[in-house]
Amino acid sequence: MNILADIISATVLFAIPLLLVALGGMFSERSGIINIALDGIMIIGALLGCHTLKWLDPAVTAGNLGSQVAVMIAILVAGVAGIALSLLLAFSAINLRADQTIGGTALNMFAPAFSIVLTWAILGQGQTTMTLPTWVRIVQNNFGKEASGTFGDMLVFKSLYATHFLCIILFAAAVILLYKTKFGLRLRACGEHPQAADSVGINVYKMRYAGVMISGFLGGIGGMSFVFAVGGFQSEVAGYGFLALAVMIFGNWKPWSILGAAFFFSFFRVIGNYASSIPFMPKLSNVEGVTTYLWPSIPYVVTVILLILTSKRSRAPKAEGIPYDKGQR
Amino acid sequence: MAETTNKPTKANESEYVIEMLNITKEFPGIKANDNITLQLKKGEIHALLGENGAGKSTLMSVLFGLYQPEAGCIKKNGEVVKINDPNDANMLNIGMVHQHFKLVECFSVLDNIILGVEPNTAGFLKKKDARKKVLDLSERYGLHVDPDAIVEDISVGMQQRTEILKMLYRDNEILIFDEPTAVLTPQEIDELMRIMRGFANEGKSILFITHKLAEIMAVADRCTVLRKGKYIGTVNIADTTPQELSRMMVGRNVNFKVDKQDMEPGEVVLEVNGITVPSKLHKGNSVQDVSFNVRRGEIVTLAGIEGNGQTQFVYALTGLDKPTAGSIKLCGKDITKMAIRDRSKMGMSHIPEDRHKHGLVLDYSLEQNMVLQKYWDPQFQSMGFIKFDAVREYSERLIEQYDVRSGQGPITMARSMSGGNQQKAIVAREIDKDPELLVAVQPTRGLDVGAIEYIHKQIVAQRDAGKAVLLVSLELDEVMNLSDRILVMYEGEIVGEFDPKVTTTEELGLYMAGAKRQER
After folding, report:
1. How many CB atoms lie under 10 A from the CB of residue B147?
2. What is the pTM of this model?
3. If interface means Cβ-Cβ distance under 8 Å, which residues of chain B face chain A?
């Protein structure tokens, strides 16, 4: 039973960064900008979030600052850092009308390099691993209870972080923002037919900036939640930004489908990681590298296969990737 | 009769709701608008007539604040106004139905109508009131739409009604229609005219941009004519004739009738049997079991509204796409699976619908474009090396013979040429191949009157020379003037065959709209 609780809680834990980042990508692409820089945005968000936690650590251990307050500050810093990086993409894609894929790729190359430089500068030469302070995780103690070791207890408190609650709020907000507000209607129009949006007086440039900035915010927070999920940060996010792009495409640029896709991919990742401890999985222990290489590759292989199978019915925003030029009509 | 009397008229109020006075707008190397004046009275339907490139679109872009004119001013009710962007135009109650609709295809009709002026509380949409207003408006003006339908699923006519409702929803008083009839059947055109008159009777002012004289004569009160960026004049429709208007538009007398002798068609050249092409957009077929033949010395026209499978049929015929069923025979030989070049060598010439995509290599020179169908011929190459002198000589002959005008002759980049001359270059290349079958798809789309006349003459000359001609056209005037036989296509099927001498555009319209079909 414990392994079932483990699998479920781990699935949720890893689905969160995928969901947040894919939602971010959705906002950007729905406004018409391909945001391939999500991986870089996650790294920058995670980087500054981790450093914030490290900086706040003495205050929390001394009892001057509530642990979850510190976590929220770090998450906010991660989001803002994500916005800052995404603004570079927005500027190149919207103002300079640069190729969005190349602009995004440049940021993806910049982010891990910058992250290593900054981490070395702060921690010292060669120090790339940042570990999370133990007080980050929400445990039974936070609610004034003792660990009981029951199934429910395992399920909930095995790995619970502030991002769990935040993710629910952000997902609901994303759905409402996209479908129930004036802003969402205009944003979607800009990604489908910017000329039409322009002709009814909508500022396409502003809407696209907004879309990219939202993706930066969610991408940064997603980066932080990835660090929570893996328990540390080594200047990379294991390609989760790209996996999130796949989740977004598999989710057909729609929030509810993205939610499903995120859990689907996360489940396969967890299966991959727990494969050796799940009874019904083939052991293959005599083959070298199965547990270290083959099982962890499952989510990525599944991604490739699923994208091939579903790419036919996927429908991207029509105007994504095309720089909008007011003069051209 | 059109004036409404519910508002007291101020003594100093201008006779005109909108005036564009002495507008001049220059682009590098060209004066798109040269001292143009356009005055629109309240409650009138005012036509704006001119050929492609006469400056109509530029003038409208100035009115919507997309361009700032170098000289001249815009007045609303006699007061000078400054229009910096479309929002300003909207504030002045000016609305426009664009030639290419500005609709978001995956949105519902209602979402498209409210986009930009969404009713909301604190940013949250309130669609209920909007829906009621849209339903009221559509009821009141007889504009039937389903507010919840997705735009990409509805007919072009309904998309246009959505655009009109967009203007009405914004309470626009000045309504601009840019070439609104190009995509409609004759019946839908009548309906639109009726709606436009209804607006005028309510005191709304209408500016109707077109190059179709019959429509102007039918519906407009006055007409302003532009030619090559210059203002030619404004006339009352009651005091003028179509001949007069066309002379103002083109600058000379135009022969609208194509001279064509009766001819007895010869043997069958093209035999199409049960051609079926699957659709790229939906599960069904875009071309369904199409069969017909074309004989020597006749022009057979495929008529129909855009998007009824004509394009896909031509793709299958010319080898750009593969049919899933049926066969095509050219001069008795099965060419269904033949490569494009082999079809061409067999004697099929193709003037494509999209001259930029399939007709020319835009960044090649004129001479290179002219040998695209022949460069492999020993006349133009030996052992894979192009004989540049022969190419030059050949292209110079074609340029001379077909009157292709360009800046630098054979070495002009195709991209820099005007649409009419690009088309002439394609016509020259395809006709000079001395084909058995000429497939001409919308050969006069977007061309001015002079070029249209020329291309029509060339097509008729091919037929008179005993070639088989298959014409695909959306323009009913062209269909009626050129054809010896008319086939109407609707939703991928041929629904009727007609003799242009005994049929009428109204009858064709019923078939084009799918309201009637013949059993064949």
Report:
1. 20
2. 0.80
3. 66, 85-87, 90, 96, 98, 102-107, 111-112, 114-118, 120, 123-125, 166
Record: contact A318-B105, CB cut-off 8 A: yes
Domains annotated on chain B, with CATH = 1-93+173-253 (3.40.50.300), 104-171 (no CATH), 255-347+436-447+464-520 (3.40.50.300), 355-434 (no CATH)
Residues B286-300: tens digit of each pLDDT: 899 999 999 999 999
CATH topology (fold) of A2-313: ABC transporter involved in vitamin B12 uptake, BtuC (1.10.3470)
Chain B residues lying within 8 Å of A210, measured CB to CB: none
pLDDT at A288 over 80: no
B356 Cα to chain A: minimum distance (Å): 17
The answer to whether B144 and A214 have CB atoms below 8 angstroms apart is no
**Residue matched to tokens 């499903």:** A260
Residue A273 has pLDDT above 90, yes or no: no
Non-local CB neighbours of A26 within 8 Å, separated by 6+ positions: A174, A178, A215, A248, A251, A253, A254, A255, A258
Q: Which helix (H) or strand (E) holds A127?
A: none
Q: Which residues on adjacent β-strands are paired with residue B268? A: B295
Q: β-strand B205-210 against B174-178: which pairing, if any? A: parallel
pLDDT digits (tens, 9 = 90+) for A228-245: 999 899 999 988 999 999
Tokens (6 digits) for B152: 């990409």
What burial letters (b/e) apply to B42-55, b meaning 16+ CB within 10 Å?
Answer: bbbbbbbbbbbbbb
Out of A170-184, A231-245, B5-19, B213-227, least confident range: B5-19
**Distance separating alpha carbons of residues A273 and A314, to the nearest angstrom:** 29
Which pLDDT score is estimated for A286?
Answer: 67
Chain A residues with CB under 8 Å of B107 CB are 185, 188-189, 192
- What ipTM does this complex have? 0.87
Helices (H), chain A: 2-31, 38-61, 67-90, 100-123, 151-157, 162-180, 182-192, 194-199, 204-230, 240-250, 255-274, 298-310
Residues of A in Cβ contact (< 8 Å) with B27: none
The mean-pLDDT minimum among A68-77, A132-141, A273-282, A317-326 falls in A273-282
Across the interface, of A192, A200, A329, the residue whose CB is closest to B105 is A192
Angstroms from B355 CA to nearest CA on chain A:
19
DSSP string, B290-318: EEEEEETTEEEEEE--TTSSHHHHHHHHH
Question: CA separation (Å) from B248 to B48, B230, B261?
Answer: 12, 11, 30
pLDDT in tens, B422-466: 999 999 999 998 999 999 999 988 777 778 888 899 999 999 999
Span B376-423, pLDDT tens digits: 999 999 999 999 999 999 999 999 988 888 888 899 888 888 788 899
Question: Cβ–Cβ of B118/A199 closer than 8 Å?
Answer: no
Q: Do A200 and B86 touch (CB under 8 A)?
A: yes
- Report the pLDDT value the prediction gives residue A271, as an integer from 0 to 100: 84
Of B106, B115, B124, the CB nearest to A200: B115
Residue A193 is nearest to which of B87, B90, B104, comparing CB atoms?
B104
**In the predicted structure, residue A287 carries a pLDDT above the cut 90:** no
Q: Which residue of A has its CA nearest to B94?
A: A200
